[in-house]
Amino acid sequence: MSMDRRKFLKVAGISSILGFGASVASARNYAGQKGLVPPQVDANKEALTAKRWAMVVDMSKFKTDEDFTKVISACHTTHNVPDFRNADGSIDRKMEIKWIWTAPYERSFPGQDNKYMSEHMKEMPFMVLCNHCDNPPCVRVCPTKATFKLQDGITMQDMHRCIGCRFCMAACPYGARSFNWTDPRTASNLKADLPNKEYPTRTKGVVEKCTFCSERLQAGKLPACVEAAPAGGILFGDMEDQNSEVRKIVTNTYTIRRKPDLGTGPAVYYVIGGGDHA
Amino acid sequence: MLEKALEGSKKYWAWVFFLGGLAAVGCYFYLQQFMFGLGITGLHRDVTWGLYIGQFTFLVGVAASAVMLVIPYYLHDYKKFAKIVILGEFLAISAVIMCILFIMADMGQPMRVMNILLYPAPNSMVFWDVVVLNGYLFLNLIIGWVTLSSDRKGIAPPKWIKPFIYLSVPWAISIHTVTAFLYAGIPGRHFWLSAILAARFLASAFAGGPSLLIILALIVRKVSKFDPGKEPIQALGKIVAYAMFANVFFLGLEFFTAFYSGIPGHQHPFYYLYAGLDGHSELVPMMWTSSVFAVVSLLMLVVPSIRKNETTLVLACIMLFISLWIDKGFGLIIGGFVPNPFEEVHTYWPTMPETMITIGVWAIGFLVLTFLYKIAVTVREQTVGVEIEH
Fold first, then answer.
1. What is the Cα–Cα distance from B211 to B324, expressed in whole angstroms?
2. Among the four given CATH numbers 2.130.10.10, 2.60.40.10, 1.20.1630.10, 3.40.50.150, the one describing domain B2-382
3. A146 and B117 in contact by Cβ < 8 A?
4. Interatomic CA distance for residues B343 and B258, integer angstroms
5. Single pTM value for the model
6. CB contact, 8 Å: B32 with chain A?
7. Is there a contact between A205 and B125 if contact means CB atoms under 8 Å apart?
8. Cβ of residue B267 closer than 8 Å to a chain A Cβ
9. Distance between start and end Cα atoms, chain A
10. Measured between CB atoms, does A262 come within 8 Å of chain B?
């Protein structure tokens, strides 16, 4: 097909207006791959890498309220998670954003309680967060690929591409996603200054969630929650590596996952038993 | 033909300015939402869709219902619909415009909405919904305009429009099927995870849309010299009756599956909507209003003498429309989110700004509808007695 200059400019102009030229090409690069490899100018040699990142939360290691609050605050400080409060200091449920938090056993594992179970067990707090599923419904429904899988199993969230349709929040069976109902910089903890200047701020109208600290992994650091948890409370490693600690625990002890029957393949495993809370 | 929308009586202009005023108020509140964010609505992290998405879902049904006129007229050669098919097609246009506006109103970052086309994700039902809705808008614009222009000149429409008309039939089915697929394929939302959801959507659409058309046709008869005719309205009444029966039956099937299986997760939303759950029964009066209106309007439509009386017919249509609006424009969405994935009940109620934005979008839709109907009615008035050849 021959194309004169005039025709070429016409087509090029129209396709650049529609944004097809670039987007079609970039979409093709990723087609057929299992997950995205983050493009890096120069890969960090100290970066922590894995075939399949996974987490084991050993609830028996969490003994005091402080054990929980330390983890939550480490995560939320690291990622500048806005903290909206009511006038009386309580959490503003209408604006609430959270990446990791606690929920009672009977709420975290619906249908797995029974009427003879002690109130103590039913109310036992569990650390809950994004499960970085093998087959994440949020990724399936996202209309802009703003949420996507990395090759190492992490479910990522691009807060700068997200259009705020909140389909992912409807799709997530774990309630792991939060939405910025207003400018996050108006929250009490972000008003003056960002707690962590190395983590980007975001705009109102986008969804956010736990990213397994992918930015810390690339810098060779473990996730913030893992560091802040009591010894052995949160383990993090490569589930595909037979010698990793997480793999050994999941192979040799009884662990449970949240709603495994939905086929999402959650990568967060829980060990129960022992400790003050059991 | 556009100029016909620009000439009208004082009453016509009063109506236009009334709708324009409501639209302006809606725009004012939308600007506030645009500046502050969606926190201005009653939504929160547990109920993330509400009034806007409910209206969108409901109006996709209204749009799809045009096919209930197209099928009898074009596929079964039911000549009585010749003069009112255009009312269905123009209603579809304004309904799709409202759908698009409600989606835009619901976006957290409306300025980024073109990302849907820049980074197309065919695995997302939203992508397909954008494709089918815009396609349907295009189809109805071109079909409505071309056929009406021909009617005006008293000639048969060009042959090339026929394939578009035939295409519009499966296309109408597709817009509501894809809209149902937004909900029906999500794991963990028990209320929506139902194979019959798309069928339910279509049934309620084919009842709700034509019932609105009956009301509109009677208004047209009152305010203009164009009479849509007694027979076509009666035919529509029968269509509404059949579709409403299917809709009520399908809803009954949902109840059977949830309660005979006894699976708690499937029962919870029904308890929340119809009986109250964990001490929350905010939506119970609304849902029962919907149920009672559904049954009563269905009975009214089934009894021939009530259906044949236009006064009682229109009353049945109003009740039916309200019933379906509550069921699909509100209950369906909220029931999917309550209880939340932790089986906790966190309720939702629209705020004042959210309600005003919603009314504003409806006003814009009715403004478009008014202009389109004004054009159609004027053409019909000028060609009284002329047989239409499609």
1. 11
2. 1.20.1630.10
3. no
4. 16
5. 0.91
6. no
7. no
8. no
9. 74
10. yes
